[in-house]
Amino acid sequence: MKTLFSSWFVQGMVKATTDMWLKGWDERNGGNVSMRLLPEDVAPYKNDFYAQPRQVELTQHAPDLANEYFIVTGSGKFFRNVQLAPSEALTVIQLDDKGASYKILWGLTAGGLPTSELASHLQSHAVRKRVTNGQDRVIMHCHATNLIALTYVLELDSAKITRKLWECSTECLVVFPDGVGIVPWMVPGTDGIGAATSDRMQHHSLVLWAFHGIFGCGPTLDDAFGLIDTAEKSAEILVKVISMGGMKQTIQTEELIALGKRFDVTPFEAALKA
After folding, report:
1. Number of other CB atoms surrounding residue 22 within 10 Å
2. Per-residue pLDDT tens digits for 150-170
3. Is 141 among the annotated ligand-binding positions?
4. Are residues 190 and 201 in the same domain?
């Protein structure tokens, strides 16, 4: 008999959160992940749903996500422990038919609520669902060390930061040709930072929160993880280059244009001119 615990999406979240912790991106309860589930994903496991699920009002309504299911990390849950007790650290929720509240259908067995960044996740999900015609289903937030470090020394300009990351790892332009959006420091866990993030998500699959962390999105957990991993590797190289006195040579604009043509991607125009 199939159980929700053994479902591909629970096991996928276990692997993703464990990998993120091992990378050093998610200390303590830092970071959060959500994935939009299709009705056919959850249909085989409805017998595992709570008979009387808790219902919670959303501070920011999400009508574009009405009736949608999500698997989400819980607020205050340590990523290093997700693999030990998935049903305590994760939850499956469903929004109501107006996108005004959600029911906790499974998980959070020791109590609690979904991530405190749920507003940011849902607002970004709504945008990415629209701009990718439903393809993007994952929003991933973490505290990637080198990307955060760069926000203290580089100008907080989307084009300029994107250009530096492209220059420090050849694959970056191919993996995130749409560049990196920037959100200045804001109080986390608020509707305001969620709105600012979703605004950047209209144009960028990566959004960097100054002095805090990174948001990445994609069709799958692997896609979102790989996107952040690629940017963080380039950021690590850039941190080392800066510490060694800065660049003496780098990839040129015409070479970046040629790279985009070779892999049939359209580079973020402002970053080419930065």
Report:
1. 11
2. 999 999 999 999 999 999 999
3. yes
4. yes
For residue 99, give the CATH number of its domain. Answer: 3.40.225.10
Is residue 33 within 8 A of residue 141, CB to CB? The reply is: yes
Residue 117 bears catalytic tag: yes
Name the catalytic one among 68, 117, 232, 236: 117
Residues 74, 88, single domain; the answer is yes
Fill in the amino acid letter for 68: E
The DSSP secondary structure of 69-86, one letter per residue, reads EEEEEBTT--GGGTTT-H
Range of the domain at 151: 116-273
Q: How many structural domains does the chain have?
A: 2
212 is in an annotated binding site: yes
Verify that 238 and 179 share a domain, yes or no: yes
In a shared domain, residues 95 and 125: no
pLDDT, one tens digit per residue, over 108-128 is 999 999 999 998 999 999 999
For residues 239 and 233, what is the distance between their CA atoms, to the nearest angstrom? 10
Whole-model pTM: value is: 0.96
